[in-house]
Amino acid sequence: MTIHQRSISPPIDPVKLDRLAELAIKVGLRLQAGQDLLVTAPTAALPLVRLVADHAYRAGAGLVIPMLSDEAITLSRYRFAPDASFDRAAGWLYEGMAKAFGANTARLAIVGEDPMLLSEQDPARVSRASKANSIAYKPALEKIVGFDVNWNILAYPSAAWAKLVFAEDAEDVAIGKLAAAIFAASRVDNDDPVAAWTAHNAELRARTAWLNGQRFAGLHYLGPGTDLTIGLADGHEWQGGESTAKNGVTCNANIPTEEVFTTPHAHRVEGRVVSSKPLSYQGSLIEDIAVEFKDGRIVAAKASRGEEVLNKVLDTDGGARRLGEVALVPHSSPISHSGLLFFNTLFDENAASHIALGQCYSKCFLQGDRLTPEQIAQQGGNTSLIHIDWMIGSAHTDVDGIRSDGSRVAVFRQGEWA
């Protein structure tokens, strides 16, 4: 047992956690010899950060730079900071991150924060702080959404998060259950996770190849409370699983992932849609979202819970009421089968087909690495400070692909690939 393994909470299998760290480096990032790595994580995830550093340096990393956030310090701001603090963010820090990404530094984000950390705080302050942070983060975010470098997101089972998912269990039991769920979804609960991901990537690649061959002009969703037509951006390209960044490195940006996704046309969305699962956002749970689109823009929005938060999100900027992503996920995905609400988009978005408000991904265009922001906008790509996924698919959802001549092809029936 290593020093790092001795610091791991007993309910968490140290062997599988080490496999997750190795997977992040070998599959999630495909970290290159000599490449620097920037890691962001909550302090609770420090055991995983340390294992990641081990595997990164074994792979030849130049430098591993950890940046840790702390929940107690975050709450201190809401308890003691002057009101003006909530309109500020560390722009200098994000400018430095953008500079690092411009110099080919890889990016790893480890999530595991308490999803409800800010649930008791003033929603107006939470919204202001989020908007200020989004504005400041834009230089770094542009490098990520533009897929300039290899990047990856994965998760660590913190105690606060575990107790939210498994509220009826004792803390140690909850941590163990969440750890097992993360390991299963991330495919590290077997002896060769790398081989498992090779097979999974091949399956997702076959799905995207079929969709790209169809060249659909749009998708039509039909289900309980949903009758929605999403036009697809001109020159869109479906992506899923591993993909190649502009620096030439092929990586898996999300672990886990079950989706294939592309860019919708920001001005060609019509109809109504309801959420099939709650959205956990900034410490609030938004339930039963119901929106109506006209000319690509949300013109009416309701929610049975968290409606005020939803409307503040929609008012972030001009692009927040338009779509930046559409993704297909079968109802039979492993995360859906788990029956769990993770309160974390990295997992919950892989339980159901979903859409995302806000910023699009330039990589979801043919030759997207050569397109300027102006060209992406001309082809229908959306721009916004936000990118928020929420689930709309279920076992009762049908999806048709619409060709340019108006003919239709069955894509999903009853939540499964047709």
From TrEMBL:
Keywords: Aminopeptidase, Hydrolase, Metal-binding, Metalloprotease, Protease. Pfam families: Peptidase_M29 (PF02073). GO terms for biological process: proteolysis. SUPFAM superfamilies: Thermophilic metalloprotease-like. InterPro entries: M29_Exopeptidase (IPR052170), M29_N-terminal (IPR035097), Peptidase_M29 (IPR000787). It comes from the Bacteria. Its cofactor is Zn(2+); Mg(2+); Co(2+). GO terms for molecular function: aminopeptidase activity; metal ion binding; metallopeptidase activity. Belongs to the peptidase M29 family. This is Aminopeptidase T. Metallo peptidase. MEROPS family M29.
